[in-house]
Amino acid sequence: MSINRYNYKTMNSLLKDKIPQHFDILPHTTIKCIIHPSVIFTILDAYLRRDEDQTHVIGTLMGSVIDTNLVEISDCFVDKHSLNEGGFLQIIKDHHETMYELKQKIRPRDQVVGWFCSGSELSELSCAVHGWFKEHNSISKFYPHTPLNEPIHLLVDASLESGFLNIKAYVQLPISLVKDYFVHFHEIQTELLPCNVERADVSLVKGNIHAHKDNHTNNLEHNHNNTK
């Protein structure tokens, strides 16, 4: 079953009836973002289809600045990546550039506005991917401009372990209270737009994800038994 069948009411129940979600922000952080449901569906679908050895899916957010401080996240694509033995992140350049060009042909006005990752909390991976998007502009295609001077990081808890779909967005801000240069991720305001598609039961979303987990566990047990 395609994840694209899940509708706004399903998303609404997963999000604890808190759409739009608004969060406190620092006075000098005025960026807000609105998210198309298709973006979340794509991330959930990618999480279900991920390789068995992958704990996260990451990818690129596409969209545009539509007002003075409002960013519209209208599309996304998954980035192929790996972590080598030293724990260093490797994002497949050719795949990223190919997907970017395809998206540009469909919606020329869309630009790279940030990146997404599945998960429930920030981690070292967050810093690594965020740094890649900022430092390798010629590859990532994220170019800072007012008011979007930082890529937006969208964190989606696709596991649904809590029974709800938690979505948060961040930008990096400098910490000015210390002598050395440090940054931290700061949560920004988000709003998930409604959609009009066929109704689907929330249990189907949970069922697909839990089935994927069960299959993964069974495969691990099978491989373990075969090595005895």
Structure description:
The chain has 228 residues and is α/β, with parallel strands linked by helices. The protein folds into two domains: 27-193, Cytidine Deaminase, domain 2 (3-Layer(aba) Sandwich), CATH 3.40.140; 195-227. It contains six helices and ten strands, in the order H-E-H-E-E-E-E-H-E-H-H-E-E-E-E-H. It has helices spanning 8-14, 37-49, 93-106, 124-135, 137-140, 202-227; strands spanning 32-35, 58-65, 70-79, 81-83, 89-91, 111-118, 152-156, 167-175, 182-187, 189-192. The strands form two sheets. The protein has an eight-stranded mixed sheet. A hairpin with a 4-residue loop joins strand 2 (58-65) and strand 3. The longest helix has 26 residues, at 202-227. The chain is globular and about 40 Å long. The protein starts with 7 loop residues before the first helix and ends with a helix. 29% of the residues are buried. Mean pLDDT is 79; it is low at 1-11, 17-28 and 198-203. InterPro entries: JAMM/MPN+_dom, MPN. GO terms for molecular function: metallopeptidase activity; translation initiation factor activity; translation initiation factor binding. Residues 33-176 form the MPN domain. This is MPN domain-containing protein.
